[in-house]
């Protein structure tokens, strides 16, 4: 059998049946990476010797009667996760030699589940881009078109999956960093509910590794099928054993429905801040048609939907509020001067971000209070609907753009340019209130690029969008190899 694009579920079944060994799967994956990754540059930190040793141990464990969820399955890990014995740099040249002393919680959970870690995948500088390039490890290309980005900041993981370098990967998401690369590369990703999966050990290099919970940011699974997302989420989910894990056990509720005809979906393809490109709109409509054809209830409007413009503004303020915490005093004072000079009439997202950078604690509390109102609005909406279908970004993968002046960048939507970071509004729709969202492929654009959508679900009901993703995969197809 050709193992290149086999799912994790298929690999586990083959390993259990004795049709293949972990050593064979690992050697096969390493051979592909050594042959093909020179063109893509997805695996920035290989760990092949230890992977082969882990594969041998997995085979020995299985021969001894052990059976764990991912025993013997080759996987990759986003570069920002600490892995003992491998550098963690976040693409920062000053930290190119930083070596953590222990594994991140999620790396430990992968290894405990029996996974074989092939290596680490590339990221942008400081994880702060919708692309994946840095001075240390270079640029990762999209396997579908090397002139385009695979997305960021989990772009290396998405590119690795699309190229057949392992069956699973783990990434993170603050500004669509799981969902955008999945959308750009034609794979699957799941942004869990905020706080569902512990993130200790995914911190900037040389930063104390503490069991802190970060606002907006999550860690989550990436795969080539919806069922594999669920398999990996079950490994990742759960509180940090140093804090909530002392007292709490996780029990996720089951999906609300098992049949497509029972689902109620709200479909969105318009946003007040930025248009949706024709290719992405077509992808949203493919999903809407599949839902309707399957007997699901599909609506295009609801009075219960929280205000999208305010949601985007709150997200931008919250996203940028923590970004300047360690700025030098003189730089922070310059930001205060710039923010004070803004016209009260300037309600652009760039203005919202600048205002967010200089929020007082008092003002931040009020922004957070507005977020709680939105969360309540989402609870009311999800009493009437089971999922919201909407874009991940307004376009398929865009050409590489390494302009260091991020605010000068533009995104081309059907021939018209818009501020680069305004495309984050769709990712922020789920991130700001902390909702789960599953990114799924919907097919190819007329130009031959993957197009995905996201399925946003009720808080802590992650299995609902995941189940819907599985049902849609059966109807419209899923991953297609480049």
Automatic annotation (TrEMBL):
PANTHER family: FATTY-ACID AMIDE HYDROLASE (PTHR43372), FATTY-ACID AMIDE HYDROLASE 2 (PTHR43372:SF4). It comes from Amycolatopsis oliviviridis. The lineage of its organism: Bacteria, Bacillati, Actinomycetota, Actinomycetes, Pseudonocardiales. The gene is amiE. Pfam families: Amidase (PF01425). This is Amidase. Residues 24-464 form the Amidase domain. SUPFAM superfamilies: Amidase signature (AS) enzymes.
């Amino acid at each position: 059998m050709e193992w290149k694009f086999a799912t994790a579920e298929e690999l586990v079944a083959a390993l259990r049946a004795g049709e293949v060994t972990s050593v064979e799967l690992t050697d096969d994956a390493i051979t592909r990476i050594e042959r093909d990754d020179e063109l893509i540059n997805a695996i920035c930190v290989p760990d092949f010797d230890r992977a082969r040793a882990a594969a041998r141990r997995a085979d020995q464990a299985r021969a001894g009667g052990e059976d764990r969820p991912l025993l013997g399955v080759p996987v990759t890990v986003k570069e920002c996760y600490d892995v003992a014995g491998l550098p963690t740099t976040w693409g920062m040249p000053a930290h190119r030699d930083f070596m953590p002393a222990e594994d991140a919680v999620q790396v430990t959970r992968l290894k405990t589940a029996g996974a074989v870690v092939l290596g680490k995948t590339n990221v942008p500088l400081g994880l702060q881009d919708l692309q994946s390039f840095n001075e240390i490890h270079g640029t990762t290309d999209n396997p579908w078109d090397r002139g385009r980005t695979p997305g960021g900041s989990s772009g290396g993981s998405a590119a690795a999956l699309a190229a057949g370098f392992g069956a699973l990967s783990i990434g993170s998401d603050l500004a669509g960093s799981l969902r955008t690369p999945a959308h750009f590369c034609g794979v699957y990703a799941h942004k869990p509910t905020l706080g569902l999966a512990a993130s200790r050990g995914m911190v900037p290099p040389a930063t104390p590794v503490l069991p802190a919970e970060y606002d907006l940011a999550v860690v989550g699974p990436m795969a080539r099928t919806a069922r594999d997302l669920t398999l990996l989420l079950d490994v990742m989910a759960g509180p940090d054993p140093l804090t909530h894990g002392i007292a709490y056990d996780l029990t996720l509720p089951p999906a609300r429905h098992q049949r497509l005809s029972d689902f109620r979906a709200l479909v969105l393809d318009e946003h007040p801040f930025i248009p949706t490109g024709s290719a992405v709109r077509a992808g949203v409509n493919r999903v809407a048609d599949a839902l309707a054809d399957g007997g699901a209830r599909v609506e295009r409007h609801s009075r219960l939907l929280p205000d999208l413009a305010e949601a985007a503004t709150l997200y931008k303020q919250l996203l940028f509020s923590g970004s300047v915490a360690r700025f030098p005093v003189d730089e922070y004072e310059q930001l205060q001067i710039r923010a004070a000079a803004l016209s009260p009439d300037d309600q652009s997202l760039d203005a919202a971000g600048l205002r967010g950078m200089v929020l007082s604690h008092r003002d931040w509390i009020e922004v957070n209070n507005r977020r709680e109102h939105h969360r309540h609005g989402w609870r009311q909406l999800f009493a009437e609907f089971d999922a919201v279908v909407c874009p991940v970004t307004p376009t398929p993968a865009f050409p590489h753009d390494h302009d260091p002046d991020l605010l000068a960048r533009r995104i081309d939507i059907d021939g018209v340019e818009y501020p680069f970071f305004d495309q984050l509004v769709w990712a922020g729709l789920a991130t700001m209130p902390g909702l789960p969202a599953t990114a799924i492929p919907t097919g190819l654009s007329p130009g031959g690029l993957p197009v995905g959508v996201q399925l946003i679900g009720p808080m802590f009901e992650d299995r609902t969008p995941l189940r819907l993703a599985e049902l849609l995969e059966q109807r419209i197809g899923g991953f297609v190899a480049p």
